[in-house]
Design goal:
Layout: E1 3-8, H1 18-26, E2 28-29, E3 34-35, E4 48-53, E5 59-60, H2 68-82, E6 87-89, E7 103-108, E8 130-135, E9 141-149, E10 154-157, H3 159-166, E11 176-179, H4 182-199, E12 209-214, H5 215-224, E13 239-247, E14 259-268, H6 269-277, H7 287-299
Parallel strand pairs: 6-7, 9-12, 12-13
Antiparallel strand pairs: 1-4, 2-3, 4-5, 7-8, 8-9, 10-11, 13-14
């Protein structure tokens, strides 16, 4: 494993600008405008937004990095779901704005209010990161979409590099950390499938569910599902729309790299569930036999 930090507190490690230094000193996330919520295993604030493995491009490892430009991804999803002429509003604005049937209120963490939903067997299995609700001219709910936002988790530790960068020193090594790609199969995909089935029973969830992630995470999902998912041309109940983003090219000191939308793909929860459980991407036949025979031959030499 050879992982290096690409962004810490929103800036390149070598950025010594006044703003970059201020954010590091205050341990502040520039995308949320508050203290960084990403922590290492011992509770130390991480501040690491984006990392890079050898022979790979930058990979966003903190979901808050995807909330650049004041939660722009929420507006993007609202437009994709309900049309270009919608306005995204905060829950606190719901009682004060003039309603014309094109206001979309966002319910989610750090955005005023999270919805109070029933709990499944004592756990919050129904919760999604965001609900974007289209409000009618009569100030009642017309329809809504759900949105999940995911980055990639890391394994191991990049503490040594992080500590060097926080002290303004160059780091020439490579941290003993890597990407937790197994989390895509073990946690992310099963949660998407479960929540998608819950949402398809909602009569006002007429445009399905959205999933926002870094481009490499979507690429890994595509590989895991065997590239067998059919694309659907229209949003409808039971659909799942993947939208993936990358950070843009390096920028001068004092600036932050842009978050760039790459593409989207709409399929159905049934397609995802079928691809997830189907025997795709299997190895050639008799791989166990060959491994056993090879080991026996090694032992008997």
């Amino acid at each position: 494993m050879a992982l290096n930090i690409v962004e810490v507190f929103g800036h390149a490690p070598e950025d010594k600008s006044k703003e970059a230094v201020r954010l590091r000193r205050k341990l502040e996330c520039p995308f949320l405008g508050s203290t960084c919520s990403k922590k290492l295993s011992d509770g130390l604030i991480s501040g690491v937004c984006t990392v890079k493995m050898a022979h790979s491009g930058p990979i966003v490892c903190c979901p808050n990095r995807l909330y650049d430009r004041q939660y722009r991804v929420l507006h993007d999803v609202a437009v994709a779901a309900f049309g270009e002429d919608v306005s995204l509003i905060h829950p606190d604005e719901l009682a004060t704005v003039a309603h014309d049937g094109r206001q979309v209120v966002a319910f989610g963490k750090r955005w005023g209010k999270e919805l109070k939903l029933p709990r499944r067997a004592g756990r919050g299995g129904y919760f999604v990161d965001w609900i974007l609700a289209l409000i009618g001219a009569d100030c009642t709910l017309k329809e809504f979409v759900a949105l999940e936002v995911q980055s990639i988790d890391t394994t191991g530790s990049y503490r040594a590099e992080r500590e060097a960068l926080m002290k303004g020193r160059a780091y020439t090594g490579a941290s003993k950390a890597g990407m937790n790609w197994e989390n895509v199969s073990k946690r992310i995909l099963p949660q998407i499938i479960y929540k998608g089935h819950v949402l398809r029973r909602e009569k006002r969830c007429t445009r399905g569910m959205f999933f926002v992630c870094p481009a490499p995470v979507y690429d890994r999902i595509w590989q895991r599902l065997g590239q067998n998912m059919l694309e659907y041309p229209m949003l409808q109940p039971g659909t799942l729309t993947f939208r993936w983003y990358d950070i843009g090219p390096p920028v001068p000191s004092g600036q932050r790299r842009e978050l760039e939308f790459k593409n989207q793909f709409t399929t159905t929860i049934d397609q995802v569930a079928l691809a997830f459980t189907s025997p795709t991407n299997l190895p050639p036949p008799n791989v166990y036999e060959e491994a056993i025979q090879a080991e026996i031959a090694t032992i008997l030499r």
